[in-house]
Amino acid sequence: MDKAIPCEIRGSKWTCLFTSDNRILGPSNLGRCIYDSQVIAIRKRLTGTDAIGTTIHEWLHGFFPDAREEVILQAESELLSLLDSLGMLADEWASDEI
Questions:
Q1: Is the N end or the C end of the chain the one with fewer CB atoms within 10 Å?
Q2: Cα 81 to Cα 66: distance, rounded to the nearest angstrom
Q3: Intra-chain end-to-end CA distance of the chain, in Å
Q4: What angle do the packed helices 69-85 and 48-63 form, to 10 degrees?
Q5: Which neighbouring-strand residues pair with 18?
Q6: How many CB atoms lie within 10 A of CB 11?
Q7: How far is CA 4 from CA 18, 19, 20, 72, 77, in A?
Q8: So where are the chain's domains?
């Protein structure tokens, strides 16, 4: 079952959708930012740092729609490193905990 969580990007209402639906994600994507429907789709099977990193990555795409992929990847990496240094990534996280 998909899980839809309301979120906000730049003052607009978006949805963070945890799904396994390849029609939404595509067959090989871990996540996808869908601007026209304001949805951040995350592959539901992801856990831990993969789930958190993908969520951050797609959220950054929504916040900075004109940013190059390299910039998004660097921001994701540096933010994950900070969260890890702070001990905030110590527990395995899964979308079924929502």
A1: N
A2: 24
A3: 12
A4: 130
A5: 3, 42
A6: 5
A7: 6, 9, 12, 23, 25
A8: 3-97
DSSP string for 24-54? HH-SS-SEEEETTTTEEEEETT-BHHHHHHH
3-state DSSP assignment of residue 91: coil
Which position has the token pair 């995350």? Answer: 42
Strand-pair partners of 60: none
What are the beta bridge partners of residue 4?
A: 17
At 79 the three-state DSSP class reads helix
Owner of token pair 């890890």: 84
Residues near 8 by beta carbon (within 8 Å), at least 6 away in sequence: 14
For the chain, the residue count is 98
Give residue-wise pLDDT tens across range 51-83. Answer: 999 999 999 999 999 999 999 999 999 999 999
